[in-house]
Specification:
about 550 residues, alpha+beta, 5-stranded mixed beta sheet, 4-stranded antiparallel beta sheet, 18 helices, disordered N terminus
Length: about 550
């Protein structure tokens, strides 16, 4: 009778056609899947991390050491593994950096939680301990580790960007790209409705141009479009242009499909053809009469109408990608016009839908012509032109530069940074271990394991740099223990800034060395990793349905 209630840990058949895995078996499977995902990307962590080459089913090659990019290209089938892939993508979207670290910490938290559960600690106790540890860790970072950027000076922004790209392809170029990222982002500063400063990364346009070396990359204020002016007879530059962004063709109008016109006079046919050409001619005149001197179209413009614009001193750009068209419209205060029709059934141009800027010009870049829009009315834009040897290099450069932009944006908006090089994780390990001793409940065990899991980051950093991780981590823990036991005015209190120097294999004050990260990045990383680990820990049953079998076609053999 007792066998009825016995929970079998092996796959058991279901009446509905599927399999069921329960209890410790499903937890072990989930932990193994998470560990496998972390093992793929952990060697890419840090300034001396290695790259991964991924080849998809059609032979497209991607070379990167960005955690989110690597995991996105992997075809992960296990449900728990998919959670970690989504976790890396979320970290990349919200923060832009720390995608590899967040997966490593989540996998380590899961592994240690699984060991506790094997020791007969209930999952609910482990989850409660993890939540409490995460809350305390975030409070400790904000109160003890975070430093205001104002105290460190403007160099802190360059150092944050430098720390982010040090582990990527741009890290070998010193502060060249770090300074470029800071300048490009500060040029697009705006204010929201509450008067708070905002730095939209989308306003920084990145163009990739093959040829030349990476050091010949450049930056300028303005929005660049990888398209030339449509006509060779057009001006090379227009000052104070009135801009129209349109989403319709300016071509010879043709009858819609299915429309039949029966005529009995050849002159009527000629009149129809003339009217077809005149409809678009009238639209061009409406735009020119409204004062439009620059037209950005997502579609095409026929040569006869390009000639009309050129004779009137206006410039046109065709086949503009829709994302670029929306950015241009938003920046210069225009609206994307999908039609010129008004409520009266006629056609007219609404002047309020037009935008303005200081200059539209065409410049020569390598072997291509690029249209540049400068001094947009509503939102300033900046453009970075990346130069590189081939497409693989340019793609990785763009990913690296985007990560540095996101990191600088977080620092500019939050205003606080923390030392890098494993300093925060080691300080949290010491603090949480001492905090756990103040608790008299079973959560103490989970908090200690949470603290030890954080050491996975400095350990992996030193292993990737081919250094002795055991000795370095032991010294680093001793430094942070001394800092936390010292008084605020003691010289030892500055030891909390110490982290790893992976090139020399020693310890150093990373605040003075300029190894800084956004405080928000660390806080988001801990919250996201903890929530992902808890979500997977809560699973104690997995039911997988088998795909429905299609009935065999009796005529298939014929």
């Amino acid at each position: 009778m007792s066998g009825i209630f016995d929970r079998n840990n092996q796959d058991s058949a279901l009446f509905i056609g599927g399999s069921r895995v329960s209890g410790q078996e499903v937890r072990s499977q989930n932990v193994m899947a998470a560990q496998s995902i972390a093992n793929v990307i952990k060697t890419s962590l840090g300034p001396v991390g290695l790259d991964k080459m991924l080849v998809d089913d059609v032979g497209e090659v991607t070379i990167s050491n960005d955690g989110a990019t690597i995991l996105q290209l992997l075809e992960v089938e296990h449900p728990a593994g998919k959670i970690l892939v989504k976790l890396a993508q979320q970290q990349d979207t919200e923060v832009g950096d720390g995608t590899t670290s967040v997966v490593i910490i989540a996998a380590e938290l899961l592994r240690r939680a699984n060991e506790l559960i094997k020791s007969h600690i209930h999952p609910a106790t482990v989850i409660a301990g993890y939540r409490l540890a995460c809350k305390e860790a975030n409070r400790f970072i904000a109160d003890q580790m975070a430093q205001r950027v104002e105290k460190l000076g403007t160099e802190a922004l360059v150092n944050v960007a430098m720390t982010t790209i040090s582990s990527k392809i741009l890290g070998t170029y010193g502060t060249f790209f770090a300074q470029m990222a800071v300048d490009a982002l500060q040029a697009v500063r705006t204010q929201d409705a509450r008067g708070k400063a905002r730095y939209p990364v989308a306003a920084v346009n990145v163009l990739k141009v093959k040829g030349a070396s990476a050091r010949e990359s450049s930056y300028f204020t303005g929005y660049a479009l990888y398209r030339p002016f449509t006509g060779a007879a057009m001006k090379r530059a227009v000052t104070n242009p009135k801009i129209a962004v349109i989403d319709f063709d300016i071509t010879k109008t043709r009858m819609k499909l299915g429309v039949n016109i029966v005529i009995d006079n050849p002159e009527s046919l000629e009149a129809i053809r003339k009217r077809e050409a005149d409809i678009s001619t009238e639209r061009v005149r409406l735009l020119l009469d409204a004062g439009v001197t620059a037209v950005f179209s997502t579609r095409g413009i026929d040569d006869m109408y390009v000639k009309m614009f050129a004779e009137a001193g206006a410039v046109t750009v065709t086949r503009v990608p829709k994302d670029d068209a929306r950015r241009i419209a938003r920046g210069c205060g225009a609206s994307v016009l999908t039609t010129l029709a008004n409520l009266d059934g006629d056609e007219s141009v609404d002047v309020s839908a037009l935008g303005s800027a200081e200059l539209v010009e065409q410049v020569r870049l390598s072997d291509d012509d690029v249209v540049v829009l400068r001094g947009a009315r509503e939102q300033h834009a900046s453009t970075v032109i990346l130069r590189g040897a081939n497409d693989y290099m340019l793609d990785e450069m763009e990913r690296s530069f985007h990560d540095s932009l996101c990191a600088v944006k977080r620092v500019l908006e939050s205003g606080s940074v923390v030392p890098g090089g494993g300093a925060v994780e080691t300080a949290l390990d010491i603090y949480l271990e001492s905090f756990a001793t103040t608790l008299g409940s079973r959560e103490q065990l989970a908090i200690v394991e949470f603290a030890n899991a954080l050491l996975a980051i400095p350990k992996q950093l030193s292993v990737n740099a081919a250094k002795d991780s055991i000795e370095l981590i032991a010294k680093l823990r001793a430094y942070h223990a001394a800092a936390q036991n010292a008084s605020a005015d003691s010289p030892r209190s500055h030891l909390k800034h110490y982290g790893l120097d992976l090139l020399e294999g020693t310890l150093r004050d990373n605040v003075k060395a300029g190894v800084l990260e956004p405080a928000m990045s660390k806080i988001k990383m801990l919250k996201s990793a903890t929530e992902a680990a808890i979500n997977i820990l809560r699973i104690d049953d997995m039911i997988k349905l088998l795909p429905e079998q299609q009935p065999e076609d009796p005529h298939a053999h014929m």
